[in-house]
Structures are given as structure tokens and as C-alpha cells.
């Protein structure tokens, strides 16, 4: 298995782990008051912002740990350059990830048009961001395994 395949697998697993861990942490903090209360809006706003920061920091830490473990186990360094294949795979993964997020964004805005509570919009946006991240990692893994 190549470095890129291993990195894609770690990225996929870490995206799922980070999202599930954060959701389990934040779920008990949901204010059970009114459906459209200011505290509820504050909760969802902080949920999204903290998730973004938490996810970025966790991905960086996991990437550093992965590189350390990879180097210790294989005695190889990570590739310092990206060839045309790597760039093409990254572009395809970004395209698929972006497409999934845009569909989620349109669904989230559509939920407002059909008079769903604002919480539904936030939930759809959060899950579309998560599915987008997983789609990007899975696409990268697929193309490194199967080719372009």
C-alpha cells in the first residue's frame, strides 16, 4: 500500500472519528427550551464554529502523528512532491467533495423554503460538511487504488 493510500485511509477514519466524537460531546449541551430560542441559535452557531476549529486542529495533529508513525515503521519519508497523477486525484476529490457540499447547501436552504425549523437547516449543513469531507477522502482512496 502506498503512502497516499494509507494517508487517505487515515483521513477517512479520522474524519468519521472527529465528527462522531464532537457530536457526542455537543449533544448533551443542546438547550431543550423553545424551538426558536436565542439560546438554540447560539448553540448551533457555536456548534458549527467550534466544529470547524476542532476539525482543523484534529486533522493537523492526526496528520503529524501519521507521518511520525509512517516514518518510524517504514523508515521512509513522505513524498516531497506531487506529480500530475496526485494533482489530478486531488482535483477529482475536491470536485466530488465540493459537489456534495453544494447539494447539502441547496437542501439546507430548501428546508427554509418549505417552512422547516431553523435547526433543520443547521443539521443539514453540518451533515453535508461531514459527508463532503468523507467523500473527498473516499474519492482520493478510490482513485489511488483503481487509477484515474
Topology overview:
Layout: H1 3-26, H2 38-74, H3 84-113, H4 118-146
Q: What does this molecule look like?
A:
The chain is an all-alpha fold. The protein has one domain. It has 4 helices and no strands. Helix 1 runs antiparallel to helix 2, helix 1 (3-26) packs antiparallel against helix 4 and helix 2 runs parallel beside helix 4. The mean pLDDT is 89.
What is the general shape? flat
Helix-strand category: mainly alpha
Counted by DSSP, the helix tally is 4
Computed Rg: 18 Å
Give the biggest sheet.
Answer: none
Q: How many DSSP E strands?
A: 0
> N- to C-terminal separation?
17 Å
- N-to-C order of helices and strands: HHHH
Notable characteristics:
single chain, 148 residues, mainly alpha, 0% strand
Care to give the gist of this entry?
The chain has 148 residues and is mostly helical. It has helices spanning 3-26, 38-74, 84-113, 118-146. Helix 1 packs antiparallel against helix 2 and helix 3 packs antiparallel against helix 4.
Amino acid at each position: 500500500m502506498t503512502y497516499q493510500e494509507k494517508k487517505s485511509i487515515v483521513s477517512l477514519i479520522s474524519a468519521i472519528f472527529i465528527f462522531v466524537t464532537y457530536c457526542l460531546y455537543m449533544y448533551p449541551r443542546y438547550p431543550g427550551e423553545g424551538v426558536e430560542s436565542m439560546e438554540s441559535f447560539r448553540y448551533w452557531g457555536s456548534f458549527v464554529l467550534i466544529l470547524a476549529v476542532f476539525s482543523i486542529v484534529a486533522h493537523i495533529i492526526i496528520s503529524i502523528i501519521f507521518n511520525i508513525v509512517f516514518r518510524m515503521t517504514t523508515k521512509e519519508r513522505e513524498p516531497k512532491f506531487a506529480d500530475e497523477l496526485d494533482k489530478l486525484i486531488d482535483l477529482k476529490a475536491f470536485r466530488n467533495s465540493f459537489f456534495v457540499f453544494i447539494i447539502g447547501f441547496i437542501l439546507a436552504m430548501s428546508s427554509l423554503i418549505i417552512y422547516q425549523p431553523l435547526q433543520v437547516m443547521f443539521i443539514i449543513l453540518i451533515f453535508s460538511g461531514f459527508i463532503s469531507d468523507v467523500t473527498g477522502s473516499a474519492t482520493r482512496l478510490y482513485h489511488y487504488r483503481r487509477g484515474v
